[in-house]
UniProtKB/TrEMBL annotation:
Domain of life: Bacteria
UniProt entry keywords in alphabetical sequence: Aminopeptidase, Hydrolase, Metal-binding, Metalloprotease, Protease, Zinc
Source organism of the structure: Phreatobacter stygius
One of the GO biological process terms: proteolysis
Annotated protein name in UniProt: Aminopeptidase N
Amino acid sequence: RPVKLSDYHVPDHRVTNVDLLVTLHPTATRVVAKLTVERHPKGRPAAPLAFDGDELNLVALTLDGAVLAASAYEAMPDRLVIHLPPAGPFTLTIETMVNPEANTQLMGLYRSSGTWCTQCEAEGFRRITYFPDRPDVLAVYTTRIEADKAEAPVLLGNGNLVETGDLGNGRHYAVWHDPHPKPSYLFALVGGDLASTSDRFVTRSGRDVALRIYSEHGKEGRLAYAMDALKRSMRWDEEVFGCEYDLDIFMIVAVSDFNMGAMENKGLNIFNDKYVMALPDTATDQDYAHIEAVIAHEYFHNWTGNRITCRDWFQLCLKEGLTVFRDQEFSSDMRSRAVKRIADVRLLKAQQFAEDAGPLAHPVRPELYNEINNFYTATVYEKGAEVIRVLKVLLGPAEFKTGMDLYLARHDGDAATIEDFIACFAEASGRDLGQFFLWYRQSGTPEVSVEGHHDPKAGTFSLDIRQTLHPTPGQPTKQPMVIPLALGLIGPDGAERPLLTEDGQSVPGVVALTASRHRFVFTGHTTRPILSINRGFSAPIRLTTDLTEADLQFLARHDGDAYNRWQSIQTLASRFLIASTAAIARGDAALVSVPLIETLGAVLNDAGRDPAFTAQALSLPSEADIAREIGSEVDPDAIQAARLALRRTISDQLGDELVATLSGFAAKGPFAPDAAAAGRRAIANVALDLWAANGTESRLAEVERRFAGADNMTDRFAALAILAQHAGTRREAALGAFYERYGSDPLIIDKWLALQAGIAEPATLDRIKTLLANPAINFGNPNRLRALVGSFAMTNQTQFNRPDGLGYGFLVDVVLDVDAKNSQVAARLLSAFRSWRAMEPGRRGRAQAALIRVANAPSLSPDVRDIVERSLG
Ligand code: ARG
Ligand code: ZN
């Protein structure tokens, strides 16, 4: 039965205080929860008490100290009902027994490499004890953890440590108290034999905060960068959002078995270890950037998520979209803003646009769900962040800040809604944000087409702009959106022209669409200006323009907006690749584009201006990007052939420029993970990749030399990735050497697995099956499985979408196998079918058959059932 936003009502009972006693044991952990319960004043007056559970086993139950008669309540694995609860406040003491060792779902209390840890968002607390497990029930938690000292010398909980002690018999305890009322999804505890690194942070009002990051023993040498990122995040949030930390200690624990990226539990963040650990020899520049972003993201949740939480799970984007926006801003301030924007837009298009164009499309704020775990999506997170950015562009930075300050002040301590959030901005700006709200309600990516008309006699340049939003699942008709388009008009000399309307008014650099069609007329243009529009990707739309190839080349060189310089090159490449794909599909040869090669050559020659930007500019649209642009009847093999042909042309024709870039940005000095040094490595490695793309023996030998001689993971892995594209002994030798060196380091094995999963040739499927059967690799770990199978299904366009359907069949086999153990991971893997309807008929039929096989499987988890049913539509 689906859950509907429109069915929301306040809980009948609320819990104001939670006292937990958790006695850790590998297979029989005892949980005694003493809860202060009262009727909610707005709840149904005579309602029974009904708490959530999930696979729970009730041992004992008392109400105000008295044992309840068997007829007074009903305890099922998924529900506890007390038929006639008292009218006044009362104390409920619930004892349950859970088995962390057997918990392969990794929700609730489980064990990861011997460490006890928890994951409670979204509905994991109900796997620990019976509780109104919903985000609008806020309570003060005190957690007493007891454990064997040898097994778990470290015992961690939310809030501040208030007591520790010895229990005799080799056992001990710790008591943690969190004074900030919070929903159950933010509860956490950890117990284990862990190493750690410590530091301090003094907040601007003088609170001295202990900082601690925990990991497995032997890995503590890899925590320094995460600690540095944490301190920078804490400072930045004070300076930019005025948000200060509110406990005496902040802890992060890295665990190796984790369903998602990380979790913002109050005062005790728990992380997938891949987003914590980094050393130059183990992590790439990209890993460093991800660690910085995720550390910041989880820390920023302390205000946007924890102090202000969500009323219900439909409001997930209230905390996630906003917190992604905040972590993006943080990274932009730490690194290059333009390069960060480009990376974010690449991700948005790859993940969210793909989702929005297929059967799994849903609004940023969904109105219905079967399984909330399936809504931790690119739409909620990434588009959720874009929508905040749209709001900021519409209001301008000053009004945006006033609205944000109002939200943080007014809703501190609340479980809030998107309506509450937007009301703060409406009030602060005095604007009607009714139409803006459609960004939360309407799914699908708006399509905007722009035509420019120059009238030299009248001296006008006019823009005719239309927007359309196609039907998406559950939304057959749509209303026009408010779409802010940042724009500029550039003269032939490269200078910005003033934006003047017909009545001589100067327009700030943004126009807002509110209707399906608009005409904007700008005056004072006796010569034709070149339009630069949707600068900085001011709105998350699909844009088509009538800009010519020459216009795009011009913009690639002269646009003052770095994002649009990049976008112009992408548009040039993408238009060309679509045409070349069509030619190949017709049986003709791949096309050749002189202007595109010229533009890329010019970009290379200018690489010194901003190496990291140049690296992005030279990274061609991916096969998936091109498939998305084509949109229907996709033939991945033709796309791949077109793209490979272009890479070979670049390799052949720009060889000298590429070599010059390679030597110009050769590594010097010791490794530093900062953005400038990372930018130099990025451009050098992109150049190396293009230079070797024609597969010349001597060039590949040079790559091999660099692979062997690299002194950091970024360069070593970049070289390996190039070698992996070219079949032969060189590839196998390099893959073997890499495994030899890092075989005992699971996070590095993940890179090795993902690389092989991405090899674009028919033998890959067998290679993956062989790897999956390797007993030395633990594919029960979600990171391993995602690295191999997830990368294959999400990134290997030609092999996942093999014309014989074997790629689809393989994914289905894995999903059905994993579903029984970890349904969240299985459902996530299955969502790789999100674009199946865009394929040409042969592949489409095979994908449909594979999905039907899932749908007909005997016992599916609710998670997988939901994805398969929506995918089939
Ligand atoms: N709130 C976490 C974050 O984005 C994500 C946790 C989601 N976990 C889950 N099992 N659905 O930072
Ligand atoms: Zn988050």
